[in-house]
Amino acid sequence: MALGGAVASCASDDEGRNGGADDGGAGDAATLDDTSADASSIPDGWSRPDAAPFDGGPRSVVCTSAPCAVSLERASSSAEAYCALLDDGTVACWGANVTGELGRGSYDPPESATAKRVVGLSDVARLYPSCVTDKSGGVWCWGWGGFPAEGPEGPVWTYVSNVPLKLALPPVRSIAIGRVVGCALVEDDVLCWGDNSNGVVAPAPRTPGTLLGPQRVAVGSGVPIRELRVGAAALAVREDGVTSSWGASPTLGRISSLSPDTNPMPIPLAGISSIDLAYDSACATAGGVGYCWGNADVSLSPPFVRLVPQSVATPEPIVQIATTQSIKTIQNGDSLERPQRWCAVGASGAVYCWGYNAGGQAGDGTKNHAYEAVKVAGLPESAVEVRAFPDSTCALLSNGKVYCWGTNLYGQLGNGKMRQPSLVPQEVILP
């Protein structure tokens, strides 16, 4: 199936069911400061002159050789796999393939350390987790997510697919897929569908196990929405950085007497330039500062939870931030909640990570828990984007190369070597 449209340039514009391999080690979450969610508050480690406000816009890719990636995303909310949009308009994926995350037309093998193209995709306009869009706004999705796919007699609900399926939606401007729930931006309306257990398909009835067709969510008028994210809650980011949320706490990011809260309302953080959501954990950047909310360390009793955005201490201003969800592991027969990890791209293009590091996921060459943001060692060029799973991390560099590090149980490093972890970045062999 070919997608309409073409790539215009080489500029880059949730619970892991098999992503929780325990490598041992523990510790609490990365050190966060206690300032409120005010974009003017600056974490320790750097300052911003009042006369020169920080521009937190995205960094760009300049393709110097083929193959060249122009965008990088987690392939799914269900398993540790990554996908890259290449400058020829195709998409290549690697890692876990338990529910077809690699889009190769087969569930066998269940994992792959070799990046290969998703079948049937060409002239892709934009890459999202689990999905792509074409120039006309058509949406194609694969893997695990509960998709209302096109059928001969109307939408057909599909939980998993190892090939891209065209969704039965009008042309969209943005899309987000979570755990059997999704949302799309259609003109100025937000449509959500799927399982409404967490109130994301608001204000439809919450009937667990029942999949609902696309429903219009009343997010209010005003500045146009530019981006959507879906997990335990849904987030809609407007062009001016104001972000509304609805769904379940603590990913809601605001104080509410309801959980789930099906009424979209702004979170207390202005000027958001980038955002990430991994089911029960969310992060954003505003004015060069990173902010996170949701589950922060579920290994503690009671769990440490941030109900509203709190700023993160980083060595320099950041332009993008990535988070991971909380996961359960089995240790000595006991079920344990494991600490999380976060990563960010600095204004200089350096990548920093903090949190759980028992498998080298922080990329500093050690397995020491990163209580503070540590600089990822060995990246040959500056980074544009970073994406993170509990056990691995990948970064897209300014020259279009992709590097990954951490555990490699499912081939997440994409270097052709299965189950050979790395404490430092390894280049993904793109097709």
List the helices and strands and how they pair.
Elements: E1 69-74, E2 81-86, E3 91-96, E4 111-117, E5 126-128, E6 131-133, E7 139-149, E8 156-166, E9 174-177, E10 181-186, E11 189-195, E12 211-217, E13 225-230, E14 233-238, E15 243-247, E16 261-266, E17 272-277, E18 281-286, E19 289-297, E20 304-312, E21 318-323, E22 327-331, E23 334-338, E24 341-346, E25 351-355, E26 370-375, E27 383-389, E28 392-397, E29 402-406, E30 422-427
Antiparallel strand pairs: 1-2, 2-3, 3-4, 5-6, 6-7, 7-8, 9-10, 10-11, 11-12, 13-14, 14-15, 15-16, 17-18, 18-19, 19-20, 21-24, 22-23, 24-25, 25-26, 27-28, 28-29, 29-30
Structural notes for this entry:
This protein has 431 residues and is mainly beta. The protein has a single domain, classed as Methylamine Dehydrogenase, Chain H (7 Propeller), CATH 2.130.10.30. 0% of the residues lie in helices and 43% in strands. The chain contains no helices and 30 strands. The protein has strands at 69-74, 81-86, 91-96, 111-117, 126-128, 131-133, 139-149, 156-166, 174-177, 181-186, 189-195, 211-217, 225-230, 233-238, 243-247, 261-266, 272-277, 281-286, 289-297, 304-312, 318-323, 327-331, 334-338, 341-346, 351-355, 370-375, 383-389, 392-397, 402-406, 422-427. A 4-stranded antiparallel beta sheet has the order 1-2-3-4, with no helix packed on it. A hairpin with a 2-residue loop joins strand 13 (225-230) and strand 14. The radius of gyration is 20 Å and the shape is globular. The two termini are 19 Å apart. The model is unreliable at 1-51 (pLDDT under 50).
